[in-house]
Amino acid sequence: MRADFAVLFDMDGVIFDSERAVLAVWRELAAEQGLEKIEEVFLRCVGTNKARTEEIFRAAYPALDFARFDGEARRRFRSRWSGGRLPQKPGVRELLQALREKGMPLALASSTETAVVRQELDEAGLLGFFDAVIGGDRVTRSKPDPEIFLRAAAGLGAEPARCFVIEDSFNGVRAAAAAGMRPLMVPDLMPPDEEMRCLAEAVLPDLYAVGAYLEKTPACESAPKPSP
Q1: Phi and psi for 202 in degrees, rounded to 5?
Q2: Is 137 a catalytic residue?
Q3: Which of 43, 55, 109, 149 could form a disulfide with 179 if both were Cys (CB 3.0 to 4.6 A apart)?
Q4: Is 10 a catalytic residue?
């Protein structure tokens, strides 16, 4: 690994196996309230910030009180997974330690609110690995807009072209590509389609593979151009 590039991480679905946990809560609430197609709606929300999630949710269920649904979903999630109980993705700590030992600037750029991001990272003992933490409430435009990644890179003093982005969501890969960065997709809930294989520099099975990829990839190489 080389220290002349930066690495930006998404959180949910990359650092933590949290998207499945949230989806489980949404399914519970949907069953209680008779909501149909909740998984389809949830997947459209993956990788977006709270404001965009609310827009998607309200379009699907216009008669439902989103604030109440969201508040109860958060309460149930925290009751089960707070205090460091949230499962980490395999290899995440090893990858972060290896990158830190090589002097890599690291940032966390998540659509989740900054306070929640910092709390969950802190509870897991991972907060100290990151030089910058940007949550979805710190930007005006949600992924797939590149704003959050550009802000994270600026916080590290890194040029976008020298930033790798570790993402699981379609919106996150789109945002990283739009920022002129080097997206590495590690799929979580949704398998990659042709668009993702075009936009991502590589699609990798897990974080161990990410570490191996970064180890052998010269940072001075230009990112591959997506096919037309």
Answers
A1: -155, 150
A2: no
A3: 149
A4: yes
